[in-house]
Amino acid sequence: MIYRKDILLFLLISLSCEGKGMIKPQNSIKEFNQFLKKSKISYNEINAENLIQQQIMFYREKRAKNVSYEKDGDMILVQWGIYDWGAGKYFEFDITRQFIEIDKDGDDAISQFHTTLYFDKEAFSDIKPGNKWFNSIENIGEIQNFILQQDFYKILTTKKALKREISWEYQ
């Protein structure tokens, strides 16, 4: 169900993004790759510094269609830690954009666009895993400040990612 406040907020955000574009969550990978291309960054050149910058700019300039901004329909999740998902242990630095579409119900409404960098775990052995949500475009300035203050950030900038992954999925 769409509420009147949701429609007004959506219209205000749409107007503020005029000329910058609105995206469908399922087109996140394609849109982000085009965004990188316009910034003259290739997939293989993605590192921690430009990933942070590009994801924040992408979040600001490419707002999501069909979500309720008032109800956390387009959020950023920053997460990090040493994990093993079956392909060996890596330190992962991930910026995820989560969408909750207003015309779907329950878990079917939730999708996530992940940008993940994988590093050799050894340099990060003293870093505790963690995460932080940013639920609004109004918090956009806090995202980069938060990351820059984390213990892992200085290490990230001195290491080369062993691999990169960009994905989108429904939960």
Describe the structure.
- With 171 residues, the chain is an alpha+beta fold.
- The chain has helices at residues 4-16, 28-38, 48-61, 140-148, 151-158, and strands spanning 22-23, 63-64, 74-84, 89-100, 110-119, 130-134, 163-170.
- The strands form 2 sheets. Strands 6-3-4-5-7 form a 5-stranded antiparallel sheet, covered by helices on one side. A two-stranded parallel sheet has the order 1-2.
- Helix 3 runs antiparallel to helix 4.
- The longest helix has 14 residues, at 48-61.
- The two termini are 20 Å apart.
Provide key terms for this protein.
alpha+beta, globular, disordered N terminus, 171 residues, 32% helix, two-stranded parallel ribbon, five-stranded antiparallel β-sheet, 5 helices
Strand content: 25-35%
Strand order of the largest sheet: 6-3-4-5-7
How helix-rich are the residues, as a percent range? 25-40%
Average pLDDT level: 88
Euclidean distance between termini CA atoms: 20 Å
- Total count of strands: 7
Unreliable spans:
1-19
Overall spatial form: globular
Structural class: alpha+beta
Rg is 16 Å
Number of helices, counting only DSSP H or I runs of 4 residues or more? 5
Task: Provide the domain count.
Answer: 1
SSE succession: HEHHEEEEEHHE
Major sheet details: 5 strands, antiparallel
